[in-house]
Amino acid sequence: EPAPVGHHPTAPDEAWSSPIVVLAFVGLGYVLDRALGTKPVFMIVLVVLSLIGQFASMWYGYDARMRELEAEREANARTRKEVRT
Fold first, then answer.
1. Which residue from 12, 32, 37, 47 could staple onto 42, CB 3.0 to 4.6 Å apart?
2. Does residue 29 contact residue 51 with C-beta atoms inside 8 Å?
3. pLDDT tens string 4-26
């Protein structure tokens, strides 16, 4: 049975991964800043990089899902057209 429209099986995983990744990078930046005495350079840089990475991940995931849905829609349209003729 196909999944309901608008349902994405990994949505809960993606919802939790973003804040966890950002927090991990904050923690890593904090540890590096403490160890190297560069307060808060690494923390800021790593948070910005993690946010850019999360945005790119969401963008490419969205784009791939839209391509899947467009291909499904085209296949369904062809099937309906064949049934009518």
1. 32
2. no
3. 555 555 566 667 788 999 999 99
